[in-house]
Design goal:
About 40% of the residues lie in helices and about 15% in strands. The protein is an alpha/beta fold. It has one domain: NAD(P)-binding Rossmann-like Domain (Rossmann fold), CATH 3.40.50. A seven-stranded parallel sheet has the order 3-2-1-4-5-6-7, sandwiched between helices. It is globular, with a radius of gyration of 18 Å.
């Protein structure tokens, strides 16, 4: 059992098609105890999804823009388990006016929202969990390759670049405490959040054409498996890394410029 006895906090499991839901499902099958988080109306959706896990999981309130939610989360986990062994950060958001080819016109406030929710929240979650990991632990975040500029990703792409940098600084500062921080950079998957990105099909089509192993946008299992590995003790010497689970897409040269231009939304 890869995660036998582990106590894991899983954020971002909005529905049954969420990457985080599949990560939680696999974690339970591999022996872990799991609690989920969400907030507001989305929390009710997560509660419905949680009933479909192998073992129904509690859903705690966590809005990463509300500092008091982190305090309440820490208190609940301390009372519930006495500590935590790992966490999945699957939290990202950008307003619609910061996506879909609106990079130049996006308001500063929208860019700041994307940065706060998608990147700074990883620091805030880690800072909350450090006192609950006296024997060390693992924090994993969900990423989308931020080494290049994508046609439709815009300020979310910038926020993901900040997420990657944040994970490296956390790895530096938390390593002496035995806490590992890594990211999984997944290919595009047809989650509720992804389908909300204008032009998402552009990225999905390109992946299916270019990934040497092929890519199924409806199959999150390979990503869930990578998350489980990084949360496990088998990854105890890995930190500050971005593990790409993308069918090999990132290893292959980009298509011709004319092809890219044809896909860029007006």
């Amino acid at each position: 059992m890869l995660l036998d006895g582990k106590r894991l906090l899983i954020t971002g499991a909005l529905t049954r098609d969420s990457i985080a839901f599949h990560a939680a499902e696999l974690a339970q099958r591999q022996g872990a105890e799991v609690v989920l988080t969400n907030f507001g109306r989305a929390k009710r959706m997560t509660e419905r999804a949680a009933k479909n896990l192998p073992a129904p999981a509690d859903v705690l309130e966590l809005d990463v823009t509300q500092p008091e939610h982190f305090d309440a989360l820490a208190e609940d986990l301390k009372t519930r388990w006495g500590g935590v062994d790992g966490a999945l950060h699957a939290i990202a958001f950008a307003p619609t006016d910061a996506l879909g080819g609106k990079f130049l016109s996006a308001p500063v406030e929208s860019a700041q929202t994307a940065f706060h929710v998608s990147a700074v929240s990883l620091r805030d979650l880690a800072r909350t969990l450090v006192p609950l990991m006296p024997q060390g632990g693992s924090i994993v975040g969900l990423d989308f390759d931020a080494t290049v500029a994508w046609p439709v990703y815009d300020w979310m792409g910038v926020a993901k670049a900040a997420l990657e940098a944040t994970s490296r600084y956390l790895a530096r500062d938390l390593g002496p405490s035995g806490i590992r921080v890594n990211l999984v950079s997944a290919g595009p998957l047809g989650t509720v959040a992804a389908r909300g990105i204008p032009g998402f099909s552009t990225l999905a089509d390109r992946w299916r054409e270019q990934a040497p192993l092929g890519w199924d946008t409806e199959d999150p299992e390979p990503v869930a498996g990578a998350i489980a590995f990084l949360l496990s003790d088998y990854a105890k010497a890995i930190t500050g890394q971005v593990l790409k689970v993308d069918g090999g897409f990132s290893a292959i040269g980009a298509p011709a410029a004319s092809d890219v231009e044809a896909e860029v939304p007006a």
